[in-house]
Amino acid sequence: MVLILVSACDKELEQFPSNAFAKDNFWTSESNANIALTGAYRGAIEYGTQVVPSDWWTYCGIVFMEFATDNAYDRRGDNSTQNRLTNGTLLPNNNVVNGYWQGSYKRIAICNDFLENIGNVEMEQAKIDRMAAEVRFLRASTYFYISQFWGSAPLVTTTLTPDEANNVDKASKAELVAFVISELKAAVEDLPSFAQLSGSEAGRASKQAAMAFLGRMYLGENDFDQASKVYKEIIDMGENGIDPDYASLFTPVNEGSSENIFSTQYFGGQAGNALPQHAFPAVASGWHIINPLGSLADAYGFDDGTPLSYEDPRFDYDDMGANRDPRFRYNLLWDGSSFGDNIYDCHPDHTESLDQLTYSKQATRTGYGLRKFFDESFNGNLKSDYGGNIPIIRYAEVLLSYLEAELEAGNPITQQLLDETINAVRGRASVGLPPITETDAATLRPILRNERRIELALEGQRLWDIFRWDIGDEVLVGDFWGAPFPDSTLYPTTSKKIDPQSRWYVTTKNFRAGIDDVWPIPESEVNVNPKLGN
Question: Which family does it belong to (predicted)?
Fold first, then answer.
């Protein structure tokens, strides 16, 4: 009987697993090449709920990144490892840093394998060239993130054996940056432009996607002249535009807009986006993980373009969305606002409400919730049935980045330039804010930075902006507050700190400049390969 069992096991081991392919038999057809290409796009993205990012482009990797900023707070509390990225307690064993690291090198390994083998497939050379360009874009964009958050890290461009992988050396940040720039430029040559993508090719990379990441790379390295040239080239191609309907850009109904240059693709019921489960308010059966901070909410001024003031008669404590920049209403929930067929009731005195603002309920910790990214009429399974994409690059970012590059390069700021960039973004039909007319660079800079913050809120850009602007010691230090509740009788005895404006106390950060703006290589990686710790 033992011999029979051993023989049976040997036969089982000879069979190919049902969820993988044998490498020697794989690179034989165009259909298999397309499967491999899909795998490169997916990288380490996981479907269903997750609390630690497995990839830069999963919803957890994009939206949860905001927990480390002055935009949002993780309901799980100060010990959340996302919060720890910037509150002065970041350590090399942080599992968020490790998640991004592992996801990065998983995608890189997939891309390296693809590029080493795609030339063996018998199909049209033009298709091989395009697929290779897509994968070079994917690999280069991954190294973009590595360069910006770790600086120095291994530059791996071939498939490694386990021994080689465990003894790899670090490349300098300059080497990583040069590689990203070279690869993105090469990818642009063989990628189709955005307008050439067919409906069945939604989600695939275009020239504009690669160029936008190239622009990001130049911005991150303060090469503003080159950044300006790249962004201007995207603009001059004329294939993308500012959509008149801001809110719909983040829902299935309009996610195919030309404003969304590149997005993470989700398909309800098959590869679902579980962000609704994490972010819906409790009244809608969500976990309310994402809690916008008062500093973000207050960055949205009044609808005439003037800054917010609680003392201004236009500010209404009973309806904080009244008279405000419309993007406040499109992006956030506040006490008394509607969410689908529900009323979002988070008042700290309303003890019977599921969404009551406390330090203990599975509900808001700030008095604000997330509306952005959601079709409020959705009524399927919150974990698996929602198919809304998550934007990675929007044309609005391109315009704002172009203006920033021109400003920081010291070029003249004209009214025409303002109208073509920041005013096109804030002047879209559904927002309709008055145009910016300030042309003095020093005065315009904070206006532009605030516009970028509120336009791209919760889209995963804020931490990178804080790092590259070197403002962590300004915006990530001190006490952070939520919404104001001056009529609350419970506030004086419930809020952990008391604010003259009756804002709910949320947390305190102590960002360490020069430490927290360069992530440590995960401790588990250094334990295997001590050279990574040097």
Answer: Belongs to the SusD family.
> pLDDT band for position 6 (50/70/90)?
very low
Residues 6+ apart with CB under 8 A from 533: 521, 526
Q: What burial class does residue 439 get, using C-beta atoms within 10 Å of its C-beta: 0-12 exposed, 13-18 middle, 19+ buried? A: middle
Tokens encoding 263? 């997005």
3-state secondary structure of 210: helix
Q: Residue 28 pLDDT more than 70? A: yes
pLDDT at res. 25: 83
Both structure tokens of 152? 């120095």
CA distance 426 to 424: 6
Type of residue at 487: D
**Looking at the predicted structure, is the pLDDT value of residue 5 above 80?**
no
- The third-level CATH classification (topology) of the domain covering 26-191+517-533 is 1.25.40
Q: Provide the whole-model pTM.
A: 0.94
Which runs of consecutive H residues, i.e. helices, occur in 55-206?
Answer: 59-62, 95-117, 125-149, 162-165, 173-190
Output the six-digit token pair for 220. 């991150």
Token pair listed for 62: 């994009």
Q: Is the pLDDT of residue 19 over 60?
A: no
Positive or negative: CA dihedral 16, 21, 23, 28: positive
Q: How many residues does the chain have?
A: 534
Average pLDDT on 337-364 reads 97
SS3 breakdown of the chain: % helix, strand, coil, rounded to 5?
A: 45, 10, 45
Alpha helices, DSSP H, located in 326-440: 326-331, 395-408, 415-420, 422-426
